[in-house]
Amino acid sequence: MLCHENAEPADMPISLLKSITNNFSDAQQIGRGGFAVVYKGLLKHGEVVAVKKLSNSIGMDEKEYVQEVRCLMRVKHRNIIRFLGYCADTQGKMMDYEGKFVMADVRERLLCFEYVPATLKDYITDASSGLEWRKRYQIIRGICEGLHYLHEMRIVHLDLKPSNILLDDNLVPKIADFGISRCFDQGKSWVTVTTLAGTPGYLAPESYNIQKITFKLDMYSLGVIIIEILTGQKGYSSVEDVLKSWRNRLKTSSAIDTVLGQIRVCFEISIKCMDMDPEKRPTTQHIIELLNQTECMDEDNENDVQVWFTLIVSPVSAYKWRIVPNVKLELESGGVKNSKQGLTTAFKDDERPPTSSASFRDVDGLLTIKHVEYFKEVAALMADTVAAEVEINATSSTAVREGLDLVAVLDVSGRMEGQKMNSMKKAMLFVIMNLTPMDRLSIVNFSDTATRLSPLRSMTAAAQNDLKALVDGLLQGGGSGGSNIKAGLETGLAVIADRVNVEARVASIFLVSDGHQTSGDARQVDPGKVATIYTFGFGKGTDNEQLMTDIAEKTPRGTFSSVPEEGPQVTLPFSELLDDLHTVVAQNVQLTITPMTWDGHLDTIVVAPAGAGYMQATDAATGDITVDFGILFAGEWRRVFVTLTLKGVTTIVSGDEHDTPLADIELRFTAQVNPGDSIYPGPGRIEILRTWFPSQAPDVSTKLRQVKAETIRRRHAEAIRKARLLADNGQLDDARYKLVDAQRALEEDNVLDNGENKLVKLLQVELVKLVKLMETKDLYEAEGRAYALAFETIHARRPPR
Questions:
Q1: Chain segment 170-199, per-residue pLDDT in tens
Q2: Which of 494-531 are b and which e, b meaning 16 or more Cβ less than 10 Å from the residue's Cβ?
Q3: Structural contact between residues 168 and 117, judged by C-beta atoms closer than 8 angstroms
């Protein structure tokens, strides 16, 4: 029988295909693409098949048809659509040509497949709804196994995307549509072509300037698809965002840590697949090995609540920690302004939080100091340059936390009436219901003046009901009056600064407004280190968004989020941030690098944190350079690049050599595992052997180019993010200007790789593509946003090397 799983593909007569599709009637049509129409066909014995009728346009020639049949004849796998047969039929037909009827040969090309009712695209949703994790994992695994089979058969698919992955009644994935696939002969693994086809958003970045077909093109597409299965969208900012979105859904699961472990592995696989360097993308074999390991995870992992960091410097040995009392901000009572912070406080009625889940534990070994791999092992005694990097990793465990102290500062001015007010109410009710009894919430509102409506209250069920009623009543009548964001912000900071029972609780402020101020200047407020400020903007307007962004960026890790004025996405920015804040494992994270200039070796030192938004200060008296990372969420990492220029030394006898200390390194932070204390690891050190006869190592400028390249990539990601936010608010002109500015910045960079400016050229290609995709609203929504998210993800969240 034709549909028997062991049947070989057959040459089918056109009469049969016409018969089973009712002469290709519109009623039987189940799909349409650029070069083909798909019909449902019903065989006599009741079996259903799919018949793909290729168009006669010049875009689909005979060579491509033969290529697709050739690929399909090779494959037979449960995760590949089953190919049943083909038809290439030529008939003579009378056709009108320039007013005359002529006889022309019409070529009909058809393919027949098993019928599969759905596509993966139909099932793409975020973690809050849709398929459970087990089903999603099975789909990911099936796609990987199907693609592995194709690559083993020397076939590059070239158009992997959710609409080309079919799902049967049991949700078994089947890779389909081999219209532009390429089959390699044995021993061949790549070929160059004049143009590369594919689908925007799934096409690898190198496809735009290097017309070379390799298996690595499929790996990039696979990475995008896995991200979509995990999150519902093509691009995502971090593994923490993915884990937090699944954590809420998995609350009742007894194996939550095992599942989250699988999700983390799948996310990391996707990021590796989307590496800008095709050679660094994994093979399908390696991916399947990683998936096998996740399936063997110990389900007892949820008992592991160890909280750890890793600081990598070199060369140093491990040191024990010393613990000193935490320095708390003391504010005078009675409403007296504090000269240091410029805050007025008179709040002493906070509720005492419940007993913390964080208790004192032995901190010995909680942080380890390891060797880092230098670019070269020794430096010359003549003038030379050394580059090193320091990396901090936070644990993925979130089992121990002290709790969140949150102040919501709400704009109730006349500017916020109507839909804005209703959306703010919806968002605040969401926040209230997603806090736990470990968390405390205070509400401040402002128009011309600011008022604290409630002290910090532990979010018990009773407190949640009270605050829901408060918010509902507060926002019931709409907004009125002017907008004094400065007063609201100062009052919120005062609530945090004057709180009691602080210990190691996470202090945060949610400022919710449309960013318009009629009195005061919120930019004048100095938040110091009282709390991290997160701003949420309702409404559009570049100037207003810039104000909200400026306020947030005054604190380490502070961020601005644009909130839709209506619709189901109103709560999304709040949901994402709350999930992050519930995974904080360290606060006040500071890395200090002290240059050692006393012995005359060190000339200059440059410290550059990877990424934007981190505060950096240099002590003029000591030369200490401190990078303030603020808070670290579970599973995050931070990296700092250190470039040291060394003076030439001429007073040492020829042939002498010695270890030269260049800088001391100290990491300081407050950990929830030891509430109320600041923790310091012992001093790490950067040092290197200086000799008259340095080893034959590559030029250190290569390492410096790597450092510069990392910085450029982060800046590039931030520019795309800002342009995307503008485009999301309909400000396409401003978004394009932002990208053009980024192009100009790239023109000033000179990052060489083997003599070619590859990185800069690749980033420029991305920007040119995004500028075009932001020309119209329809084009941006159809393709541009997906591109922006994908590129932003690739450049902003590369896994640590």
A1: 889 999 888 777 777 655 555 655 556 677
A2: bbbbbbeebbbbbbbbbbbbbbbbeebebeebebbbbb
A3: yes
131 token code pair: 């398929």
Range 187-212 burial, b when 16+ CB lie within 10 A, else e: eeeeeeeeebebbebbbbbbbeeeee
Residue type, 532: T
Cα separation, 381 vs 601, whole angstroms: 9
Q: Is cis: bond before 200, omega within 30 of 0?
A: no
Annotated binding residue at 348?
A: no
Report pLDDT digits (tens) over 619-651.
Answer: 988 889 988 887 777 666 777 778 888 887 765
Rounded to a whole number of angstroms, the distance between the first and last alpha carbons of the chain is: 54
CA atoms of 11 and 35, how far apart (whole Å): 21
Beta carbons within 8 Å of 727's beta carbon, 6+ residues apart:
735, 774, 780, 784, 785, 788
Tell me the residue type at 330.
E
How many residues make up the chain in this entry?
Answer: 801
The 3-state DSSP class for residue 290 equals helix
Residue 309 and residue 636: Cα distance in Å, rounded?
Answer: 10
Contact assessment for residue 216 and residue 281, using Cβ atoms and an 8 Å cutoff: yes
Q: What was the pLDDT predicted at 307?
A: 30
Highest mean pLDDT among 106-110, 251-255, 379-383, 433-437 belongs to: 433-437
The three state secondary structure string of 592-646 is: EEEECCCCCCEEEEEEEECCCCCEEEECCCCCCEEEEEEEEECCCEEEEEEEEEE
Closest C-alpha among 320, 114, 574, 218 to residue 226: 218
Structure tokens at 627: 């990078």
Catalytic positions, written as ranges: 159
Q: Are 296 and 261 in contact (CB under 8 A)?
A: no
Q: Which residues pair with 49 in a beta bridge?
A: 41, 114
Question: Strand order in 100-114's β-sheet?
Answer: 10-11, 83-97, 100-114, 48-54, 36-42, 29-32
CA 258 to chain centre: 22
Query: Domain 10-114: which CATH class?
Result: alpha beta
Q: Give the CA angle between residues 339, 345, 347 to the nearest 5°.
A: 155
Any idea which architecture 309-321+363-399+585-697 has in CATH? Answer: Sandwich (2.60)
Superfamily of domain 118-303: Transferase(Phosphotransferase) domain 1 (1.10.510.10)
Higher pLDDT, 5 or 262: 262
Q: Could you give the percent of the chain with pLDDT greater than 70?
A: 70
- The reply to whether CATH 3.40.50.410 applies to domain 404-582 is yes
Torsions phi, psi for 509 (to 5 deg)? -125, 130
* DSSP secondary structure letters along 263-278: HHHHHHHHHHHT-SSG
Locate 269 and state its tokens: 């696989």
Residue 780: DSSP 8-state: I
Indicate the domain borders of the chain.
Answer: 10-114, 118-303, 309-321+363-399+585-697, 404-582, 704-796
